[in-house]
Amino acid sequence: MSALPETLVQQLAQHFGKRFSTAEAIRTHHGHDESHFPDALPDGVVWPHSTAEVVDIVNLCRAHRVPLIPFGVGSSLEGHVLATHGGISLDMSEMNQVLAIHAEDMDAVVQPGLTRKALNAALHGSGLFFPIDPGADASLGGMTATRASGTNAVRYGTMRENVLALEVVLADGRVIRTGGRARKSSAGYDLTRLFVGSEGTLGVITEVTVRLHPLPEAVSAATCSFPDVASAVQTVIQTIQLGVPVARIELLDALTVHSVNRFSKTSLREAPMLVFEFHGSPASVEEQAQTVQELARDNGGEDFEWATRPEDRTRLWQARHDVYFAGLNLQPGCRAVTTDVCVPISRLAEAIAGTQQDIADSGLTAPVVGHVGDGNFHVLILTDPDNPDQIARAEALGRRIVERALALDGTCTGEHGIGLGKRDFLVAEHGEGVAVMVSLKAALDPLNLMNPGKIVPTTDC
Amino acid sequence: MSALPETLVQQLAQHFGKRFSTAEAIRTHHGHDESHFPDALPDGVVWPHSTAEVVDIVNLCRAHRVPLIPFGVGSSLEGHVLATHGGISLDMSEMNQVLAIHAEDMDAVVQPGLTRKALNAALHGSGLFFPIDPGADASLGGMTATRASGTNAVRYGTMRENVLALEVVLADGRVIRTGGRARKSSAGYDLTRLFVGSEGTLGVITEVTVRLHPLPEAVSAATCSFPDVASAVQTVIQTIQLGVPVARIELLDALTVHSVNRFSKTSLREAPMLVFEFHGSPASVEEQAQTVQELARDNGGEDFEWATRPEDRTRLWQARHDVYFAGLNLQPGCRAVTTDVCVPISRLAEAIAGTQQDIADSGLTAPVVGHVGDGNFHVLILTDPDNPDQIARAEALGRRIVERALALDGTCTGEHGIGLGKRDFLVAEHGEGVAVMVSLKAALDPLNLMNPGKIVPTTDC
Prior knowledge:
Chains A, B: Keywords: FAD, Flavoprotein, Oxidoreductase, Transit peptide. The structure is a homodimer. By secondary structure, chain A is an alpha+beta fold. Helices cover 38% and strands 20% of the residues of chain A. The first copy, chain A, has helices spanning 6-16, 24-30, 51-63, 116-122, 140-146, 153-156, 159-162, 191-195, 229-241, 254-264, 282-298, 310-321, 323-328, 348-362, 388-407, 423-430, 432-444, and strands at 20-21, 44-46, 68-71, 88-91, 98-102, 107-110, 128-129, 163-170, 175-179, 203-211, 213-214, 218-225, 248-252, 273-280, 305-307, 335-342, 368-371, 376-383. The interface between A and B is large, with 90 and 89 residues.
């Protein structure tokens, strides 16, 4: 972990002018994400404008054996963008153009710095939308790199299903194009899926082709309160098992609803709640809503409250997306140790019940919220950053939650990724498979310069 | 290309008894697939019964530097199972058990030798089905290895979307488990998707966990004839662009319909035809059918003929699945040079029109059939195996069809895979990406013993 070689600083300054910075405030911003990990500052930040410039930066860094960390908007939750080995933070935010919208093929080609909301704004009037919606207005490059998903994944899939093609700059400066715009292909190894979820450790994503979806003809959304989390989860399980093509089905526990009311000025009943959204033709939406209402009622759900106007729905989902900040707001000055697990749907009730018992036992404050249609839920464990004992207890609680999820045939992360925080769990989950990941990393990045220290255990560079 | 070392023969005979054979008839069967490539016999065939036995075989072969070629049912269409470098054919057909059906999670764990029809038979009464349906009753291991799809992919996805987890024996004898039963995961590199479509070149698949889907409450199927292929294709494009969740939408050109009538004793009108199937609730199926009928009528489609009884639908789809054999039957004794391309849906009309002009110019007989909802179509170019000039013309025609698809932003294979037949096109399509594939192959199979010569260009072993 050393500062940059003087020659490299000169070369970057000469090439990028004001688009290269070693100012501390800039480096601090880029050495920080939404996780609870301590900041780890890069030695410099560069803002490329083109794939050719990314190639230049990769080649310069390689010549000097300096690590490179791609940076989107800094909303990662497992320390992905922290420069734990120093090096250059590659801020992609100025490569944020929509390169093409192929409305007739329902795809778009974008630069990696474009955010998901900016893409949807660009799609306005096309009759299409891009459904993947992590809480933050993340960049599409970052979402690709972490295999992100969100509330719509139960219907529309995750970044795994919605990235059709990529352009990637490899560690040796080669530029490859993976996948293509055809909806399916059996042409060779699936390099697209190898880079989706690779967290910047295999190369720098410089272009993303994503699937778009037709805006549904009709949309309806509703909330429904339940006497306890188990009844809500049972409703979710039955909905999925019946094959109802629900677009969103989200769980908020009572504490989360309370935090949302405080933060978003809503007046939701402070009980475990499901938030549903149905997409389709008017008749299909009506039919789905009918089926789910019956299931909810059988499980003790209170009457549905419908958000019929688009602006009410927008407010409802914005409140849902803000649960992270709403949760933090419960204890001013706190930070959160988050965890994000996903289990087969049949194990969901057990996973959440056990998690809630663990939270109670821990004495900590920890809202639970989840994309439960996929079996995925998050726990936001609030901690005082100046209280090491509390942080240790939060981390222990997070471990117990993940260990239970693994024991229930689940995964240690449904959508946040491995980053720094879950490398040990990756080994617990995939065993010898991690050795294979190490081999792939070594094959594509033999000098270990691409976001070193993330995902796979590596020696320092 | 040499026969097996005597020690290896002794070891395999001792270990496997009658489950090891070097008989010529057996080797001939295993050195042959449904492609037009000349037979290439393995030097021996082994039928393992367990993952541990696969490990033993892999270790024995590696010790003697002998190649290994996994074999399912031999229905590959690009020479995947041909032992072009000699070696052992690993016949997985006796590893054909259903290991678990998790109805509540809608997944099943199976051995790779199980065929898709056998899986669906095992699911009888569960309310679930496995939708992926290449023409042949292929093995699930083989379907995983070629990233297969079929008529249902437009609604349910391909093997890429429907394989959740794998067990794989690597070239060095290690056994890894990839993925998991959770519906989504961001835990590290997507090894599952790396092995899906790897055609036996990265390891031997010994267990597959697949997604299942709820049997639709209502199903309806119909055929509709069109004045020309362009009108049929236009109907498909509009259906997809409207977001109608059609389950199947298949094109047969007039020659294909003629071949089906001859082979399957049907009496379909011998004009370009679309075959539709709709899945959903009764109301949703009715609504989908209504929408598509209107689109078809606007494009000159003749009235829909409905296959309302389940046995009529089964007969209709069996006839569709038999088009390969129906086509061959047009010229007794012929073989087929097949090609399989996939283009973005907006380019489909142009791709098929150009292809039909090429066929007319070639003077060859070549039915066209396709999973057009995905932009995927096949051409079955009939050739007399004793007429080298005709074979050369067929190959030239196949090349033109693929070159056009690539020029239209498509892929050289939608679902058949690369095998031997499309290695040059893989380079044309993916360029430098193929060098990355070579690196991955070298990282996982440094001795090049796993199905050598397929997908990636390799030196002889």
